[in-house]
Design a protein that fits this description.
This protein is an alpha+beta fold and 373 residues long. The chain is built from 11 helices and 13 strands. Strands 3, 4, 5, 6, 7 and 8 form a 6-stranded antiparallel sheet that branches. It has a 5-stranded mixed sheet with strand order 9-11-10-12-13. A two-stranded antiparallel ribbon has the order 1-2.
Amino acid sequence: MVRIQAMAPSRPSVPPPCQDGVDPPSPRGRLTRLRGSDKLRRSRQPRAERPENAFEVNYMNRLSKTVLLLAVVLTAGYVTLAPALADDDGEARKAKILANLKLAYPQLEQLNPTMGEIKPSGFGGLDEGSFTMPGRGTQKFLVSSDDTKLYLIGDPIDVSKSAEEIAAELAKRAEAEAKKAAEMRKQLDEAISGGTVPVRGNPDASVTIVEFSDFQCPYCARGTQTMDQLLEKYPEDVKLVFKHFPLSFHPWAKPAAIAAHCAGLQKPEAFWTLHDNYFAKQKEITPQNVIEKTKEFLAGTGIDMEAWSECAENKESEAYKAAAAVVDGDMALGQKLGVSGTPGFFVNGEFVNGAQPLSAFEPLIAKAKQAGS
């Protein structure tokens, strides 16, 4: 019988679709996404100790990324191979290794990998090789000479730099990050300069947080609670700008986004009424009742419901098409800036990924205030 074993890799300190700043749940040894990253790791914690899944992605899409990302993350994972074949020529050896890899990672069957050359590695008792997945890159590995264990590896890390060289590299990175944040802020400022953009907080605040969010995403609802805390704690320093990012697998998110935009065209506070109700009552809303629920939420806002209905419901109307174009434009802007899941935030151009706590935003707010921007 073939045994599959894995050694847990070290966890990086960094935080995609609907997401927060925690790891998804996982049974022991199962591949999971790292916090705030498309990278994967093997979980060693019992399910009861881990929070609810933060990603609502198609299962096969998630599996299809797994092996490619192992090149970055699983520097110590290994597969125990079946005993070597008697006629262990090159092609037979490759076939055996590939069969064992597919047994260890069934998703490889869908990716049609091909084996590369296997040759001595320079490490005693180990050969090196790789397999390639069309359109997804190449994964390197080390395999023991007796074909009993295989290690998935990443590229080597240069650890030869001196303290002075490290300091210079960090300074260079900081400069590049500041330049990137400035460019992102410029693009965001241009995008939010219109009068119909939903804004909360002090319009003249020195710190602008642009949120890309999805009304159906539960982690966006959690992120909204953090935004409320920030606005309460920094009433003069922070303004929040909302941008729509309805994910395709959330069926009522886009209709809600269009409906909220249409309401905001008449009264900004009507947008925020829907914003708050959508997030607070997500479990009550379905694709079938989203419009009726929206009408309930709008009761008492004083907007012209007939005009709103023409904008939010009549897909043939110019008003509806214009509202849908705004939502699509928000999505395109987010994607251009690197947003791939929700929620995503930009604090004066610096990106915060996922539903993070207050403590993740406060250093960026302090930095922006100190810069006087």
